[in-house]
Write a structure and sequence with these properties.
Layout lengths: L15 H12 L28 E2 L4 E2 L18 E2 L3 E2 L1 H20 L20 H16 L6 H23 L23 H18 L9 H7 L1 H20 L1 E2 L2 E5 L9 E5 L3 E2 L8 H9 L46 H21 L3 H24 L11 H24 L7 H8 L1 H9 L2 H7 L2 E2 L1 E5 H4 L5
Antiparallel strand pairs: 1-4, 2-3, 5-8, 6-7, 9-10
Pfam families: HGSNAT_cat (PF07786)
InterPro entries: HGSNAT_cat
Keywords: Membrane, Transmembrane, Transmembrane helix
Length: 480
């Protein structure tokens, strides 16, 4: 179904020079264009992050890259008919919806099946794919959204505004304002408010990738893979620079000894102080890594996540890999706050978004399905092999630190899965079996807010009979 979007408006008088330059560049651009679907600000939160950029493709008077194709026609030999209406990249909606399902599954079942819950530290589980999949999808969307721009300044301003909206929404949902099940109170002490989170990380990565796509691309006419690399070479330079910065800081900065305190059950008692011995460089363990140190120094330890995954390690839980009581010889860092969506780890999240941007650019510049899948599989294979090799040689796959090896493995897996869904849905036309996932993908952010953030259960729990414990959720065993 075609979905039309209003293109980005022109600039005002102060921005006329930038607009004129952009228009001059587009006169020499590729004739096969993807319409910008940068919608109005009226779309508000429904167009943010998990559904950051609606991915539509314009096929006015040219071969439609997403034209429905019958199952009997051979891949790569199909004659595509001209389309005068915009078509949505259905496979991206399905991929987004599948990721939402995966997120809900691991959130609700991960406590019962620790094997699919987040890895306590090094390693990779089903839950560890959710965040990079979302970032990859955002990148693909941006490759389509910002292909044709009437004004770079206006597009940049709108991207910044969207990122700010998403940051505020993330602070509201994940900063501690809602206290969760079995606690009908709400509100948060700003001095202890969690500053980073899932939506905040997506907002930062989205903004960086959007700016790269708006400003860091050439005007080359893409006829081959080499032309594609030349056109977007500065984006690859940005991705390389981010990777070098991350690895240099992770393994180069010195981590001194540090301490923290935790409150006790009774307010009259003094808080407990714990001291953690470090004095090392290049440590990637839970206690003395640079990722945690930077967050403690910049954000403040009171603004970090208070239930980190390393509480489920063997050193910190007798029920590992599940949460449990502390062992008698538990190290001092087991109860320390640590944010899995911290500042330094978000640098590699930006790179994941840029990798997804590359996959979106392949859709833009290559119209043949066979070429697209071939390029996707080459990129995905390279990322996956590189990530596994790095893990084998000591740079462990670690979601909490968002290591370079973790970025490679998960981005490669996202590329393989996206190529498979694209083949199934957009080429072979098997849409009926994915209608539910497609619908969830189109409303991903709303589903995330209502379901994954427990907003719906909290609202339902607010209606009870005489005692707060007598509510519908308690009757069906939720939150008890």
């Amino acid at each position: 179904m075609a979905i039309e979007y209003e293109p980005i408006k022109g600039c005002n008088a102060d921005e006329m020079q930038d607009c004129t330059q952009d228009k001059h560049l587009k006169m020499n651009g590729n004739a096969d264009k993807i319409e910008d679907d940068d919608d109005d600000d009226d779309k508000e939160m429904g167009q943010l992050a998990l559904q950051i950029s609606e991915t539509t493709i314009s096929n006015k008077g040219e071969e439609g890259p997403l034209t429905p194709i019958s199952n009997s026609t051979h891949l790569g030999r199909r004659q595509q008919q001209p389309q005068h209406a915009q078509q949505r990249l259905v496979s991206l909606d399905v991929f987004r919806g599948l990721t939402i399902v995966l997120m809900i599954l691991v959130d609700d079942v991960g406590g019962l099946l620790p094997a699919i819950n987040h890895s306590p530290w090094n390693g990779l589980t089903l839950a560890d794919y959710v965040m990079p999949f979302f970032l990859f999808i955002v990148g693909v969307s941006l490759g389509l959204t910002y292909k044709r721009l009437s004004c770079r300044v206006t597009a940049t301003r709108k991207a910044i505004l969207r990122a700010l909206k998403l940051l505020v929404l993330g602070l509201f949902l994940q900063g501690g304002f809602f206290h969760g099940l079995n606690n009908l109170t709400y509100g948060v002490d700003i001095q202890q408010m969690r500053l980073m989170g899932i939506l905040q990380r997506i907002a930062i990565a989205y903004l960086v990738a959007a700016i790269c796509e708006i400003w860091l691309k050439g005007d080359h006419h893409v006829k081959s893979e080499l032309n594609l690399l030349k056109k977007h070479r500065f984006q690859w330079v940005a991705a390389l620079a981010l990777t070098i910065i991350y690895i240099s800081l992770l393994y180069g900065l010195y981590v001194p000894d540090w301490e923290y305190q935790i409150p006790v059950a009774t307010s009259s008692s003094a808080p407990k102080f714990f001291s953690v011995k470090c004095g090392v460089r290049g440590d990637t363990g839970p206690a003395c890594n640079v990722v945690g140190m930077i967050d403690r120094k910049i954000l403040g330890i009171k603004h970090l996540y208070r239930k980190p995954v390393f509480e489920r390690t063997k050193q910190c839980s007798i029920n590992s890999p599940d949460y449990g009581p502390l062992p008698s010889d538990a190290p001092s860092w087991c109860q320390a706050p640590f944010d899995p969506e911290g500042l330094l780890s978000s640098v590699m999240a930006m790179v994941t978004c840029l990798v997804g941007l590359h996959y979106g650019q392949i859709i833009v510049h290559f119209k043949d399905h066979r070429d697209r899948i071939r390029l996707w599989l080459i990129s995905s294979s390279g990322l996956l092999v590189l990530g596994l090799a790095l893990d084998f040689f000591g740079m462990h796959v670690n979601k909490a630190l968002y290591t370079f090896s973790y970025m490679c493995v998960t981005a490669g897996a996202a590329g393989f899965l996206f190529a498979g869904i694209y083949l199934l849905v957009d080429i072979c036309g098997y849409r009926r079996m994915t209608l539910v996932l497609e619908w969830m993908g189109k409303h991903a952010l709303m589903i995330y807010i209502l379901a994954a953030c427990n907003i719906v259960p909290i609202i339902i729990q607010g209606f009870y009979w005489k005692q707060p414990q007598n509510n519908i959720l308690s009757l069906i065993g939720i939150g008890t």
